[in-house]
PTS glucose transporter subunit IIA
Amino acid sequence: MTTVTAPLAGRAIGLPAVPDPVFSGAMVGPGTAIDPVREESEAVAPVDGVIVSLHPHAYVVVDAEGRGVLTHLGIDTVQLGGEGFELLVAKGDTVTRGQAVVRWNPAAVEEAGKSPVCPVVALEATAEALTDLREAGEVAIGDTLFGWQ
């Protein structure tokens, strides 16, 4: 089983509360979402693995079992063209859980008119494969968001 931990601090709200139908409908995959604290921070790797996709606003880490976890920093943030995001690793890098991947400021994202809500999604998984899904309450970096069987 893979344990997926919070890549940032904030409040767990669950995918249905994400202001984007692709994420709220779990079309990308099951998971949860975090409404982040509004301060400059670093989004970290939610699992040990390899960065297989890396953009200023989103990244995917694939673990040793081949399971990909997407962390999406805000909604429609691709439209910001990378402004306000700083990549701290490179595609292909091996990362450990809790290692900083992207520095960003959720407050600046909000000021730019975008939602700072961050989906954390188990790619190519079924909802039934996830256990102990956190969809409410405060979360700190490294807190368990869900298990993936």
Notes: The first strand starts at residue 2 and ends at 5.
